[in-house]
Amino acid sequence: MTKVFDATEVMLCWTPGTANVALVPWPDVQRASTPYQCSSLACYGEFREMTFEQRKAQIFIEAMTLIIRDECDPSAVHHALCGLNEYRAGCPVDMPDMGEAGRKKP
């Protein structure tokens, strides 16, 4: 099982039109976000100040933005977001890559 993070600990990074979507630790001292064109989540102070439920809603908005506006591969977006407690808390347990292990409720 991959480690699951709170969204205040990572950036969501992606390159539009591709399957290149990943979670990168924040702050990005290793410069792991360099290969990507876009980023969101913990790299924004406003996001880090949100409640768990606000972050959960924002993550689903970000997912739709990546898939629809930026034409990222939906499976790649889902797979990357499965590493977030907030995303997992908003998905049914029978969704691919889910399961009870790693699920965290607020």
Structural description of this entry:
With 106 residues, the chain is α+β, with helices and mostly antiparallel strands. The protein has four helices and three strands. It has one domain (7-89). The chain has helices at residues 45-48, 52-69, 74-81, 85-89, and strands spanning 10-14, 21-25, 38-41. Strands 2-1-3 form a three-stranded antiparallel β-sheet, covered by helices on one side. A hairpin with a 6-residue loop joins strand 1 and strand 2. The chain is globular, with a radius of gyration of 13 Å.
Kindly state the number of beta strands: 3
Strand content: 5-15%
Fraction of residues in helix:
25-40%
**Count of individual domains:** 1
Question: H/E element string?
Answer: EEEHHHH
Radius of gyration: 13 Å
- How far apart are the termini? 21 Å
